[in-house]
Amino acid sequence: MPAAPARIVSLTPFWQRVKALERIPKPVPAALGFRVKSGWAMAVLLVGPPYAPRLVSCQAVLLSDPKIPQSKQPCHAALDLPAKEGKTLRKKLERIVAGAAKKSVHELLRQASREGHAVVGAGLVVGSLVDPATLYNEHIRAHGLEGQLFRTVLEDALGEQEIPCQVLLEKTAYITASSALRKSPTDTKQMIAGLGELHEGSWRAEEKLAALAAWMALRAGPQKVM
User: Fold this and answer.
1) In order of start, what are the domains of the chain with their CATH numbers?
2) Angle between helices 205-220 and 173-181 in degrees, nearest 10
């Protein structure tokens, strides 16, 4: 029997495949900044070189479940209950808070990726870093524990995505950032104010602090998550 004709396989030359890969746009480095509040956070995404950051988005994100109002203040919710019952409720609410943080972080990263941005770092601005164990008034301690909770669930959610995170204290945020950015506090505040000029929504303290945290993270660049 005559031999079957050889199949001719058309292969794209290697150099053409390389050129095609080169045409695929690389993700633009970006950073997230959060002003952490009770049950929610203001989130800002910045892109561009650290010396000229650009605002991409600014939005409030949930760190609690709106259907479960107690999740906004999980420690306060347990205060007036018997110890065992209160502990059980608090643990349940803390799991809800952690789940909400993971969901919000996932959505923010999805949005960034869809727009061609790669988040290389994040920054959080918080109201206090005082150890709640040193607070003896139970209501003040509950506030301290909640502040700690909302901060750590965000840190954990970002860490799971291998995104390094740094924390700034609101009271000293501009001084700390100005030193790291090698700018005067006045210049730093003017830069942050300018970022919001094209933003259609409000650009108040929460938005500005979140932008400041994002700028710090953008300057720090990619780092290994410990």
Assistant:
1) 34-220 (3.30.420)
2) 30
